[in-house]
Design brief:
single chain; alpha+beta; 10-stranded antiparallel β-sheet; 8-stranded antiparallel β-sheet; 11 helices; 26 strands; disordered C terminus
């Protein structure tokens, strides 16, 4: 009896682990992380609009940092940075311990993510000019693919993938970057750690300016050189098989340009014309082309024709999730782009499965956020250049000012979902009239108004006549 029981136990054990493996594979296919996101402590009694509190000057641009020790950023498990890159400016190669989404607020340029193990598919041939004997020879440069970007693009970079960025336009490039430091891809602590492959950030930190609004408590830890500076110069020389002088130059010890340098004669690299790349992106992806090496890392979210919700009187909303950009499934992040016309509103709602990091790109508006105790944790104006954290489940409503309101929201889930309180698909719209009547002690007529007055609108609400009259009386 005992001898027959043991093989049965082994079979059950193998079947259990086989089914568990299938569940893990299914979760990966569906974009679910193997482990739940590490929970952050969120003791949010009040929220505030955040602005960068440190500014680092470089030769051809500026890097601005939001304070990572701010409890709102820690609650969301994110870190935020803003880069301004001047024309012909090159952001030197960098990688970090957390996945990131970058939004191009302004300008255009090119970027080159270097994905390990992928082939160098871009080739450049030039005539040699060294001597008459060498005139028939060609110099061959090969590198991984380069992507153009423009205003309104979202760029997605996994943790540990190095990349650079170059401004080939005529106006400064402004990029807002949000890192998800609570991602499962980050197995270090929740601090954002940037690793530089070139440059000397010590000089940059010496030129930095701290804003007076609040101290930047991580200034010392943020100062760093590139990783070659920590290696022995002889080791570098042997590893690359180059002279010692060349190995020393990799350490950039005497380089005072910072992390954004100027390319005087312009960056000349092999890349397809911008028009050809844009035409390539108009096709409908079927998923077969999304292999590891050629997966898309870019998508434009500001194009009005790609809006998911549009109101001729209110504005528009566009979402970018892992169904539209599959790389986001690995990053476990998504984005939302919003445009509100004068005095229009985004219907009161809550984010069901994600924190939301809202950055205002243009205009201004009033934002109200309510916590689980029914108290307003934020009620104020949000202006261009400011950041606001909307914690998961907290109710929020945005209303544009006289100049309208535009924003980009970074969300900590690759398929973030919202639940509106007002409008055609809202929570109140789905309730029976009797439930609304008894919940708020109102008449059936009032309950029907609550359900159906905005029945033709979804998430974007045009300015109401009663609201306009109320604002007029208040201003008078």
């Amino acid at each position: 009896m005992a001898t027959s029981f043991f093989p049965l136990l082994v079979i059950c054990f193998l079947l259990f682990h086989g089914s568990l493996g299938q569940m893990e594979q299914r979760r990966e296919r569906e974009g679910q992380p193997r482990r739940l996101r590490e929970q952050s402590e969120c003791r949010i009694q009040s929220l505030s609009a955040l602005e960068p509190n440190r500014r680092d000057e470089a030769e051809a641009g500026v890097t601005e940092h939001w304070d990572e020790d701010n409890e709102q950023l820690q609650c969301a498990g994110v870190a935020a940075t803003r880069y301004t890159i001047e024309p012909k400016g090159l952001l030197l190669p960098i990688f970090s311990n957390a996945p990131q989404l970058s939004y191009i607020v302004q300008g255009r340029g090119i970027t080159g993510p270097i994905i390990p193990g992928c082939p160098e598919t871009y080739q450049q041939f030039e005539q040699s000019r060294q001597s008459e004997q060498e005139r028939g020879q060609r110099y061959n440069d090969q590198h991984q693919r380069i992507q153009h970007f423009r205003e309104g693009d979202i760029l997605a970079f996994p943790a540990g993938v190095s990349h650079w960025c170059y401004n080939d336009g005529e106006e400064p490039v402004v990029v807002v970057v949000v890192h998800d430091t609570s991602s499962q891809a980050n197995q270090l602590d929740k601090n954002l750690r940037r690793f530089h492959l070139a440059g000397n950030e010590r000089y940059q930190s010496e030129q930095s300016q701290q804003y007076k609004r609040e101290p930047f408590r991580r200034q010392e830890s943020s100062r760093s050189d590139n990783i070659f500076n920590g290696l022995d110069v002889q080791t570098i020389s042997e590893a690359f098989d180059v002279p010692i002088d060349t190995a020393r130059k990799l350490q950039n010890r005497d380089d005072k340009r910072g992390n954004i340098v100027r390319v005087e004669n312009g960056l000349r690299v092999a890349r397809p014309p911008r028009s050809e790349e844009e035409e390539e992106r108009t096709g409908n992806p079927n998923g077969l082309e999304e292999t590891f090496c050629n997966r898309r890392l870019r998508e434009n979210i500001a194009d009005p024709t790609r809006a998911d919700v549009y109101s001729s009187q209110g504005g528009r909303l566009a979402t970018l999730n892992s169904h539209k950009l599959p790389i986001l499934r690995n990053l476990q992040m998504s984005a939302e782009r919003g445009v509100l016309y004068r005095n229009a509103l985004v219907a009161p709602h809550w984010n069901m499965n994600a924190h939301s990091v809202v950055y205002v790109t243009r205009g201004n508006g009033r934002v109200q956020v309510v916590g689980n105790q029914g108290n307003a944790v934020y009620d104020g104006e949000l202006r261009q250049g400011q950041l606001l954290i909307i914690p998961q489940m907290f109710a929020v409503v945005k209303q544009a000012g006289n100049d309208g309101l535009e924003w980009i929201a970074f969300k900590t889930n690759d398929n973030a979902m919202t639940n509106p309180i007002v409008g055609k698909t809202s929570a109140l719209r789905g309730m029976p009239e009797e439930v609304i009547m008894n919940s708020y002690r109102i008449s059936r007529e009032d309950a029907r108004r609550l359900k159906y007055n905005r029945d033709q609108e979804m998430q974007i609400l045009s300015p109401s006549r009663s609201g306009s009259q109320s604002r007029g009386r208040a201003s008078a």
